[in-house]
């Protein structure tokens, strides 16, 4: 069911609240010992490192929480070091990021891993200064001149403003569960108690948090109690003791300490608060800022008939097909790839399912080839419209780089630019701009007449190739245009259908008169509703009654008379029944409810009248559309195919590239000036935003030269203006791994979009649990019913992604069906898991020369090891030793390091594998996941090692999979969905070897598909099944 615009706004509000909550709960700085250092900070060369500073839980902090004052702290070594860390970040940020809030976290729990976690978190504003002056960070120009202000001497904390309708603080529910051990029912009751309060204050939240922990301490669990009953009891307990905020802070800390002692945890609580930079975990800062602009601007800024509108509401846009003419060297497009490409060029919004190995990246590269062709047509004046900009984006850098890198390879003028985060701008974008500037300078050194002659020759050659291809493609192009026109007419005709239900039947003149009469009545009713919000008192009640009496005599009477003349009526529940017999509080509440119902009924009548007024117009439009459809003739059963034109398409692309370079060479002077400005901006700001803001002419020329850009979704705010439709086309790759909210930044900028990915890949990792999400949704108090929001919900169990949301917004989702990566037996397992229906074109491969025991593409080593807990995860010692032996055997036989991957579902087993490989002197490919595990300095190349989640998107010739599980009770993680096993299996090109307990795995509905497809491999075949002997060293 499609959502309305107002409901789409609710989706945005919900996503914004979810992002804020998830990131607020992730702020856990590492504890640092308070050491020496200067109390006076350095302003010229600040040194980062101190991520927080401490404050006592005293009366001053309590006053701050109650918004009754500010906390001022003089500089000491800790605050001085924190200030230098803050200032260092300010020097690396843009001007519009200098007003970011901090988080106040309390009481502080020192966790066994060395992290500091605050149970309660709230936003604060931190300002530095001296006396009455406020410290202002010097600008870049001032720093370059050596002009620095005096160092501040104190920090000042005030409460940050909070959005209307939100709670004043966040509660770390992860900390409540572990290590405090608060039952889920008690947590639910706490949030239910908050929700029942009309407006939650800071003292109320402190009080409820405290009594929740105290009740959890005394809970026996003998008698079951409903959540509502628990919530009511918590509210009564908190209200019974009207203590001040300082007393509640003391009780809260004591309650946390008792719960830690009861659970036997090594964590310790301290009666202090810490202040941390709220941007430390704020990877979605640009996105949150754009979401705020969308939901807080009056009526929003997005349109229903736009890619973002379709994405948010699920209402499909017009769909058609456009020609894909250009082709890169290499394999041609398959039938399903060409269908996806033509849908992209002819539609405003489309979604494509791309299973593993079906050539998603190749398809996107071919779309870029067509974009180069269209850009060249515009540069040479052969197209009526500008090609606009094509953005390739994704949630991960590798997916973007896989497309952009081939387009920037070689010594010629790059075809695309890679933008993104500050790091990407500093390293990749700056390097590409320097290369472009060098190319333009060399071109500028050539004689102008030679450059103009080259442009004329290249332009003429391009026209010849274009005309030749157009003649071949003309029948199909004309058929696609007719199909697109037919689809447009059919959709518009469907929109002209009369609304469901009985329509109001009145003349156009009477409709206009009624609408005019309703406007003053609606204004009076809204004023009545506002009067009802006043404090309940006899005087307020009299004002409400008098206002209604005047309204009923004038505006309401005029409407009733106009309705009677058209045999219509309007029933309003005013005045409320028996209002005079109630207390002032009850009477005011009854008036408020009745006023809201009255406003709703007047609005419904106005909408019905507008629909009636439009019905005649719709009927006439439907007649015209029907005639146009009839003129198109009967719908063809198929689109005409054309002869072989692949060589012509490749030659046309070569001609387009040559013509684009000739055009750039002819205008080298002005283009090199613009690129120089862009390069200077990127080097100084590590961002493109200042270029668009301060140098619009240079930005325009840069974007005219480069019509293909790459950036990750969360870095778009660092690159492009936040303007609707500023990008002609957007491709979101690997959308099955993308958080639904992350796609908003790209879609709001897009005039048309393609969302491509696989819903059967591992969905994005979301830290919020289902219970956290349910509480958040209640706290948002959205008007949209919860069932309608179900496809948009974002929590750990939601199985939602940008791809799943996009699939709802198209009438027909495309699918890529030709597979080129894995051996047929390997991808057959994925096909059985997910029902892809793939046609496999992979060439046969045989690795038995290096490893004779690799007799089948899918192998299983049956190991009866025991899974044991390790650091909150699982490991299996027998599988570990056999995996290491198998790796050594493969490498000894001649398999290269970069052909081999070892993956596992569990972090515990991953850490044991990492140590084992390094102990045996087997190089391991560096990765962020292993660095997090404490392995800095790993070699750049080696055996790929990671969890299944982290290795998603990778591939190797041979993949070893350590399943770990030896208990049927643990099969749920592997079998809950097909995604995890599908990703694991489809990473292997030639051989997939599963090491695990075959009898246990066979009990899982999905893991059984793997064991059934696998051929047994005995450990003795590769030298296993016995204690490890001497090991070999493998040098890079």
Structure, explained:
With 1036 residues, the protein is α/β, with parallel strands linked by helices. The protein has five domains: 1-20 and 770-800; 28-34 and 41-277, no CATH class; 303-446 and 643-769 and 803-809, Rossmann fold; 514-615; 824-1022, P-loop containing nucleotide triphosphate hydrolases (Rossmann fold), CATH 3.40.50. It contains 36 helices and 26 strands. The protein is globular and about 90 Å long. The model is unreliable at 94-100, 928-939 and 1028-1036 (pLDDT under 50).
Task: List the topology elements.
Blueprint: H1 5-24, E1 52-56, H2 59-65, E2 71-74, H3 77-91, E3 102-110, E4 116-130, E5 133-134, H4 140-145, E6 154-159, E7 170-171, H5 173-177, H6 184-196, H7 202-218, H8 227-240, H9 245-263, E8 268-270, E9 272-277, H10 285-296, H11 307-313, H12 335-346, E10 349-353, H13 360-379, E11 390-394, H14 397-408, E12 417-418, H15 422-444, H16 448-495, H17 508-531, H18 538-565, H19 584-632, H20 646-666, H21 668-685, H22 689-694, H23 696-705, E13 708-712, E14 727-733, H24 744-749, E15 750-757, H25 770-780, H26 786-789, H27 802-807, E16 814-815, E17 818-819, H28 824-834, E18 839-840, E19 858-862, E20 867-870, E21 873-876, H29 877-893, E22 900-904, H30 907-919, H31 928-932, E23 944-947, H32 948-951, E24 956-962, H33 972-975, H34 979-985, E25 988-996, H35 998-1001, H36 1007-1013, E26 1015-1016
Parallel strand pairs: 10-15, 10-16, 11-13, 11-14, 12-13, 14-15, 17-18, 19-25, 19-26, 22-23, 22-24, 24-25
Antiparallel strand pairs: 1-9, 2-6, 3-4, 3-8, 3-9, 4-5, 4-6, 4-7, 20-21
Helix pairs in contact: 1-10, 1-25, 6-7, 6-8, 6-25, 7-8, 7-9, 12-13, 13-14, 13-20, 15-21, 16-19, 16-20, 17-18, 17-19, 18-19, 21-23, 28-34, 29-30
